[in-house]
Amino acid sequence: MDKYILLDHGSGGLVSQNLIGSLFLKYLKNPVLNQLEDAAVLPPEHGQLAFSTDSYVVDPIFFPGGNIGELAVNGTINDLAMRGARPICLSLGLILEEGFAVEELEEIIKSIANACDYAGVPVVTGDTKVVPKGKADKVFINTSGIGIVEVDINVTARQARSGDIILLSGTLADHGITILTSRASLQVDGNLKSDTRPLHFLVKKIMAEAPGAVHTMRDPTRGGLGTTLSEIAKSTNLCMEIDEQAIPMHGEVRAACELMGLDPLYLANEGKCLVITAPEEAEAILAAMCSVSEGVDSCIIGKVTKKYPGRVVLTTTSGGHRLVEPLSGEPLPRIC
Amino acid sequence: MKYVDEYRSRELVDKLCNTLHRITTDPVRVMEVCGTHTMSIFRHGLRDMLPDKVQLISGPGCPVCVTPSGVIDGFIELASRPEVTVTTFGDMIRVPGARGSLAEARAAGAKVEIVYSPMDALVLAKERPYRLVVFLSVGFETTTPTIAATVLEAERQGIDNFFIFPANKVMPPPLDALMQDPELQVDGLLCPGHVSIISGSDSFQFLVDKYGLACAVAGFEPTDILRAIVSLVRQIQGKRPTIENCYGRVVTRKGNVKARGLVEKIFTPVDCRWRGLGVIEKSGLGLRKAYEHFDATKRLNITPVESAEPKGCRCGEILKGICGPRDCPLFGRRCTPGSPVGPCMVSSEGTCAAWHRYGGLV
Questions:
Q1: Residues B90, A317: C-beta atoms closer than 8 Å
Q2: Which of these, B110, B90, B89, lies nearest to B99 by C-alpha position?
Q3: What's the pLDDT band for B100 if we cut at 50, 70, 90?
Q4: Which strands sit side by side in the sheet containing A123-131, from one edge to the other?
Q5: Each residue of B247-270: pLDDT tens digit?
Q6: Closest-CA residue to A274 (of A296, A301, A255)
Q7: Is residue A22 within 8 Å of A1, Cβ to Cβ?
Q8: Are the beta carbons of A336 and B63 separated by less than 8 Å?
């Protein structure tokens, strides 16, 4: 196989077919994808259809805890799961820069295959384009996904009610701080790594525990917990009251945030889920979340009230109170 | 986390707040000079824990905010030259000058890179000998020593494609100027902790002697700040102004003599314009003759122009503590962190940004 991606690999001709056979089908093969038709045709399923899409341009493409490939698989699976859907298939669109190392592409495809196997969600259709050097940054990935939602399930940001309990499925800001420190080549002692992982098993467990009690689920990715909660507050015109002390964080993540002057509330998570639930079921749901590996650090971080409609209010570690506004602009490190 | 958690303890904060409520009998006006103090006070929600009689006023201590727009325009002009890569601390990126911001210049093709240390800029210059790498040298006493060390290192290694755009400032002259402003009424100063590590707490003694101002050097954690406010209230109400060092774990009376020596070797005091405050004598730092070849403005021929502040913007008065963000007609309307008009909205340490982000409850 060639060492580097050439424009020919995106031509649609023999060189493209060679790449598909020797790389994509080798790792991603399944009966639907193997047909190499223009569209995947899937058997009918009972329920509502959920459909989601997301593009991945993360830099660096390899980072502690994962790479752009598994991020693209898990990210779209999680978007489906947050609506209470059971993900059934994905599409995979790749935009490659001319000169990208085939070895690195193979690494990424392997990790996509592993993530799909682990999640039990296959890639059923795909596309590859190559653009001239400098017109893209190594590799961009788009994944879309289809999921099935049981007919009586309706999980949305608008369902949150006053009195509800807010739960978080684990530690905050792992992905965001890992990417920022790798980008800045900052050596931080400890074990910073991305939390990228699929959340649909966790969601299945939650929905099995108390299906009607779960009002809202969101994964606080870009913009972080602060922005996600602000969106929910705005769309419900309710107040999200959270307690800084209750939010779990790895020591090294906290330290890195302090060092770089970044607020962990605005950093991305790629394997965490915010659950808003009726108060009477909160303990049972918490127990269910803690019983699966991706939710062992779950905890209650706050409640929904009518105190400051449309706002998020944080009780700080020191006992003060402040508003949490949505993120504006990308988080920037500070001078002093 | 060690050295952090113990200074954020709810129990200790409660104790200090109770003391403050008990001892505060008369209204006191305290200026927090440093932007990091402003930010920390909001971030930890301290404002709503203080007695009503304690009024906090935010001062001119955010290096990004006080950089005049003419200098920002100079940064942008430099960045727009095809042979130049501009390196900067992150906060500078979104600050608007008269001709847009560095972020906009970058979108239009200028090479602008965020660094965490001036030494990173030097590494970049070494890696790209065919580019002229300029570090935008902004900051107070805290930041300047590392910049001085970087210039010395560039000299030692003979790197001739590395330059700085000198725009560093020092803290005592603007405080002196501020205190002479008849509009400003301040009883006490929360003195900047990090500046004091370098300059020493003695560097603020003149404020006590000359203006009878109560002074307390404070760290940046909630209990540090509250302790210093307790000290200020006691000094003000007891009419015994002095300078109390409430950040003894890192600040000494004399400061970091070695770091100051480094700065003095490279830089020399110059008259300097502050956004909103005007030109203040010997409040800035220029490169000494022996190091002038590192000065991007001279080598690359950039003349900072005087440009008017944006219309309606009250950052100047806000920086002086004469009015608050909510007194500005642009605040939260035309001027938001997403699309800032004035400098106080841009930096995360800026008074307006802090009020906008955290201030809605108080």
A1: no
A2: B110
A3: confident
A4: A48-56, A139-149, A86-97, A123-131
A5: 999 999 999 999 999 999 999 999
A6: A301
A7: yes
A8: yes
Place of tokens 């997301």: A54
- CA B128 – CA B137 distance, rounded (Å): 20
pTM listed for this prediction? 0.91
Report the residue of chain B nearest A252, measured CA to CA: B1
Q: How far apart are CA A324 and CA B360, in angstroms?
A: 9
Per DSSP, helices labelled H in B128-246 are: 144-157, 172-179, 193-199, 205-211, 222-237
Choose the most confident range, by mean pLDDT, from A17-21, A273-277, B98-102, B173-177: A273-277
- Of the candidates B203, B192, B207, the one whose C-alpha atom is nearest the C-alpha of residue B254 is B203
Q: Which two tokens stand for residue A257?
A: 């945030």
* Partner-chain contact A318 B10, CB within 8 Å: yes
Pure H helices in chain A = 14-19, 26-28, 31-34, 68-81, 102-119, 174-183, 200-209, 224-236, 251-260, 282-290
Q: How far is B254 from chain A (nearest CA, A)?
A: 21
Pairing of the two strands B214-218 and B243-245? parallel
Instruction: Test B222 with A318 for CB contact under 8 angstroms.
Output: yes
Which residue ranges form the domains of chain B, and what is each CATH number?
69-170+255-299 (3.40.50.11740)
Looking at the complex, does the CB of residue B119 fall below 8 Å from at least one CB of chain A? no
B146 touches chain A (CB under 8 A): no
Q: What is the ipTM of this complex?
A: 0.85
A94 strand-pairing partners: A128, A141
Phi then psi for A101, rounded to 5 degrees? -70, 125
Report the range of poorest mean pLDDT among B81-85, B104-108, B198-202, B303-307. Answer: B303-307
Q: How far apart are the first and last CA of chain A?
A: 50
Contact, B214 vs B56, CB < 8 A? no
Q: How does B119-152 read in b/e, with b if 16+ C-beta sit within 10 Å?
A: bbbbbbbeeeeebbbbbbbbbbbbbbbebbbbbe
Separation CA B256–CA A222 (nearest Å): 41
**What tokens appear for B10 in the block?**
């709810």
The tokens 């978007």 sit on which residue?
A79
Interface contact A261-B348, CB threshold 8 A: yes
Q: How far, in whole angstroms, is CA A82 from its chain's centroid?
A: 10
List chain B residues with CB under 8 Å of A241.
none
Structure-token match 């004035």, residue found: B342
The owner of tokens 């003000």 is: B236
Six token digits for residue A12: 């649609």
pLDDT recorded at residue B361: 58
Alpha carbons within 13 angstroms on the beta-carbon side of residue A287 total 6
In angstroms, the separation between the Cα of residue A203 and the nearest Cα of chain B is: 32
The pLDDT of residue A122 is 98
* Of A333, A323, A153, the residue nearest A229 (C-alpha): A323
Residue found under tokens 């779950």: A298
Q: Residue A202: left (phi > 0), alpha (psi -120 to 50), or beta?
A: alpha
Express each pLDDT in A24-58 by its tens digit: 999 999 999 999 999 999 999 999 999 999 999 99
Q: How far is A327 from chain B (nearest CA, A)?
A: 9
Distance separating alpha carbons of residues B20 and B264, to the nearest angstrom? 41
Whether A320 has its CB under 8 Å from any CB of chain B: the answer is yes
Q: Which of B13, B64, B138 sits opposite A318 (nearest CB)?
A: B13
Distance CA B169, CA B260 (A): 14
The partner residue sitting opposite A335, judged by closest CB among B13, B138, B337, is: B138
Q: Which domains does chain A have, with CATH numbers?
A: 7-149 (3.30.1330.10), 157-323 (3.90.650.10)
Q: How many CB pairs under 8 A join A and B?
A: 111
Q: What is the pLDDT of residue B360?
A: 62
